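Quick question, first post here. What does this chain look like in 3D?
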Amino acid sequence: MNKLYDSPKAALDGLLRDGMTIMSGGFGLSGNPESLIPEIKAAGAKDLTIISNNAGADGFGLWHLLQSRQVRKMISSYVGENKLFEQQYLTGELELELNPQGTLAERIRAGGAGIPAFYTATGVGTVVADGKLQEEFEGQPYIRETWLRADLAIIKAWRADSEGNLQFRKTARNFNPVMATAAKTTVVEVEELVDVGEISPDCVHTPGIYVHRIVKCTINEKRVEKLTIRERE
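> Answer (accepted):
Ran it through. Tokens below.
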């Protein structure tokens, strides 16, 4: 099966619909699927549930889908820097399911591994535990969290071969690998396309069996959300 597509628009063709759930990779602004997000906006699919660590920053990433009012609900762990996100949440336009970051990652991993639920001590005694089943193990309280799965995962990798074997680079290896396993369809944008065998088996972070469509990046800004520097002596 040919997994290579000529453009981000073509890579998403036939996959988008109103009311669907989309996982979007990235940690802050690192590893965001910069080329695929604008095509979702252009397609106009609405009432979307987005599972992502964050919702981008002003003028970048998932911010574009918030700006066009295509997102109904966000399942996230970090939302502090996005003013548009804050505004829509406080006015009731946007539904938010806020997760501790490790819990979010594990819920996605569980979805990919076929584990419907698991127990964690994170969030016990806080609003995170509200409405969730709680049990004791070895005398300690734990809350039950459920898996997360999606109709579509859009992720970004450093390198890929034509079979879909992926290699990520540094911080971009964040939520991207687990999201690739937890969706019915995974579309990946990559910086470099290489021949099969060029990525050492030890360096394959996501096997091609999880990848359905591949496209070369058309946008690769790699913005820095907060640049902090100091003068050299």
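The chain has one domain: 4-100+107-114+149-216.
The CA atoms of residues 102 and 122 lie 9 Å apart.
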